[in-house]
Amino acid sequence: MSYIEIPAYAKINLSLDVVRKREDGYHELKMIMQTVSLHDTICLEKTREAGIHLECSDRSLPADSTNTAWRAAELMFERYGLAGGLRVRIIKRIPVAAGLAGGSTDAAAVLKGINELYDLGLDIGELKRLGLRIGADVPFCIEGGTRLAEGIGEILTPLPDFSGVDVVIVRPDIAISTPQVFSRFDMSQVTEQDRPDTGQLIGALAKRDIKEASRHMKNVLELVTMRWHDTVSLAKGRMEKAGAEASLMSGSGPSVFGLFADQEKALEAYTMLSAYPQWECWIAKTV
Ligand code: ATP
């Protein structure tokens, strides 16, 4: 095999709680992560000449060793002493710096793709260990599905299947830096009401009861991002008005998603939200 094409799926956070700040500065998290069908496509091709060559359909992204896809390829080449070189092409659809793990999922897809392309036979545990060296969300992106994520996001527990639910995602016209949101986050400002009830949420998701789930879906980082950028709370309000059964900011934002009872309602909301010219909008399903 000399060529492979793989989808790199985005994620949304059905909840996000900060448990504590560790002495090393990292925040310990407890969150429910969900893969959605919105995806980039990663194309990998073996080349005779050595070295990594990267092209990305989004020219604003770096096409060098700071790109997460490049870092993943480099890690695999060094670790497994792979011969020749690799051409990586990213067809970018996931918005950048939007809370949807766009960079992490590209890295995850490159790790999985190289494993297949070079017939390395690595198991998922090994891929996740490698992925964690690139970013905390990479192990989740390797597993995908519905997972409880703890630690810095790398301790994953499978949850009952929640695939096939209609989702609309809106991205207000701002980019958010995750480290900046965490640096503004103040544990002492968080009340019990701001925090998700993760146990109850897991129960509601298992019953696929979106209405009940919506009562427990909370993201404590909304406190920071929404105070900082009004447009994010505006997006959430409009998502609810457009008929979402549940809506929440994903990750550190600014993307806001809505869960819908059926595809028709999701399409209506997508049409309504697409009318705002500064916002980008996608329709997807949970995977
Ligand atoms: P997360 O939800 O994991 O916090 P995010 O969706 O908020 O991630 P990304 O889209 O991963 O953020 O982008 C974060 C930064 O990573 C951007 O500044 C971007 O330049 C850089 N980056 C490097 N490689 C990539 C890539 N392949 N795709 C997207 N961003 C990348």
Folded structure, characterized:
With 287 residues, this protein is α+β, with helices and mostly antiparallel strands. It is 34% helix and 29% strand. α1 packs parallel to α2 and α6 runs antiparallel to α7. The two termini are 28 Å apart. The mean pLDDT is 97. Adenosine-5'-triphosphate binds next to α1 and α2.
List the helices and strands and how they pair.
Elements: E1 3-21, E2 27-47, E3 51-56, H1 68-80, E4 85-91, H2 102-117, H3 124-132, H4 138-143, E5 146-151, E6 155-158, E7 166-171, H5 178-184, H6 198-206, H7 210-216, H8 222-228, H9 230-241, E8 246-249, E9 256-260, H10 263-274, E10 280-285
Parallel strand pairs: 3-4
Antiparallel strand pairs: 1-2, 2-4, 2-5, 5-6, 7-9, 7-10, 8-9
Adenosine-5'-triphosphate binds at residues 61, 67-69, 90, 96-104, 106, 137, 178, 251-252.
Largest sheet data: 6 strands, mixed
Cα-to-Cα separation, first versus last residue: 28 Å
> Could you name the CATH class of the largest domain?
Alpha Beta
Strand/helix succession: EEEHEHHHEEEHHHHHEEHE
Helix content, binned percent: 25-40%
The number of helical runs is 10
Q: What is shown here, in short?
A:
The chain is an alpha+beta fold and 287 residues long. Helix content is 34%, strand content 29%. The protein folds into 2 domains: 3-158, Ribosomal Protein S5, domain 2 (2-Layer Sandwich), CATH 3.30.230; 166-285, Alpha-Beta Plaits (2-Layer Sandwich), CATH 3.30.70.
